[in-house]
Amino acid sequence: MKSIFKSLFSLLLFIPLTHAQKNQIKSAQKELKAGNLEQVIAILSPVEYLISNASDEDRIHFYYIKGTALVDLANQNINTSKNLSQAVLAFNDLIEVEKESNQYKYTSEAIESLHKIKEGLVNSANEDLAVENFTDSSDKFYQAYLIDKKDTLQLYNAAVSYRSANENDLALKCYEELKNINYSGNIAVYIAYSKSKLKDEYFGTIKERNVQIQNGTHFRPRQEFQSKKAEIYKSIAMIYVQSGYKEKAMKAISQARNLDSQDLSLALVEANLYLETKDYDYFDNLVSVIIEANPNNAELVANFGLNCQNEQYYEGAEYYYKKAIEMNPKYAEAYVNLSALLVEKSIKIGNQMNEYLGSSNSDKKAFSELKTEKEQIIKDVFKNLQKVVSIDPFNSSVKQLTNSMNTANINNSSRGALASGE
């Protein structure tokens, strides 16, 4: 009996609430016709929590009135982004209710409104993009995607914009979704052979390319499609790198490299990740492949040396500095970096020598071997610095290094020859 009375009591409470809700919807409809848009939202908001229990007819009218008022407010530049977002939700709810109830009074109008909202969002996002307002553009692209999830281009645009805005968490969410839906983003690329540059040139539109064909500066026009998959995996990897998730980054880079093995920037990131994790063998293997593909890029190889030095892989640093010099014997910066590395090495050997100052034969032998090694290193340093002076007589790094050697009491008979430039 108690449960029956409870149910009756709840029903008696619900009846006036339902009646009040109907009145609120009617009042909101009158205000909408009168153009009092903010008043419409003020009337509907207090009864929104009850709408799920309302009749289909009331729910349809509620969502239609709310969505229409929000769109009109946005069109008046009143909280545009917020009102459009809420309008999208209202119209989606409207479409869903009409589908469930098999009533299609406002569905076509709601779909048309959603289409216009999406079009407006994309146009506004592109305007923001043009002035590098990446935060707003990314939000709008993503809202446009939520309206029409078949238009995955807007999800890609959102990902790129979030990345540009340094909103890495949101960018990663979009990129991961693109990966999960197997987005390829195949875009047409227009190509023609340039007579002056003697190579293919790429154009953003077919019109731009055809103008050059008509001008006679290009010939052999063709069209290709380029996939965005490799770029997506690369972006995921770079976000993981920046966030410190090395294992996830390595996995993503490996996937990206499978899609685009020629991407040098990806190869560099992958190699440096293995360097940071102290997997020197794998790092050296990756670098050997990169060097093979770039046999004349001494600067690239010297940068590997610098990265190795920063990660305290001194053997690798020395090897890559020497490799850079081998590729370009007049690369002064490589000689300087190698010399700085050797100076550092000689100082460490000097510290080791202090550990063998005893009178035992083993101490004397160790001291003598270290001394010989240090003297050879110092000779190599001055030989390298002499080479720098011959290439670039006013190189300031030479003076800085010799000063640091003076401070560390590193002496050599070659110093006079260096000073005289012989």
TrEMBL record:
InterPro entries: TPR-like_helical_dom_sf (IPR011990), TPR_rpt (IPR019734). The keyword Signal applies. Residues 1-20 form the signal peptide. Pfam families: TPR_17 (PF13431). TPR repeats lie at residues 230-263, 298-331. PROSITE patterns: TPR. Keywords: Signal, TPR repeat. This is Uncharacterized protein. It comes from Flavobacterium aquariorum. The lineage of its organism: Bacteria, Pseudomonadati, Bacteroidota, Flavobacteriia, Flavobacteriales.
